[in-house]
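Re: that chain you flagged

S.,

Sorry for the slow reply, it's been a week of failed gels. I finally had a moment to sit down with the sequence you sent. For the record, here it is as I used it:
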Amino acid sequence: MSEGYHVDHETLAERVDDLADFEKRAEEDIAEAEQLAAAYKHLWDSTAAEEYQRAHALWSKGAAEMRAALAHLRQSGANAHGNYTAAMGANTGFWK
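Prediction finished late last night. Pasting the structure tokens below so you have them in one place:
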């Protein structure tokens, strides 16, 4: 028989909160970077402007992928926490 596994639901809930905090900080950093780039964008012309646009498009795509991945990871953790908590409650109910 296998030993199975153990889930520390409090730690899982803390990690879900950590992910939400990280998402918020990342959004703030992304907004700040966008503002800084916009403030200096008018100084670039020709090749520099074109390269900036290409780099910005790539960066924006990566930021969107990061947002989606973080949201998925956070939601998966929240779902797991809810499921484990419900299972613990149901199992405890069997012994009452």
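What I noticed first: The two ends are 27 Å apart (CA to CA).

Talk soon,
D.
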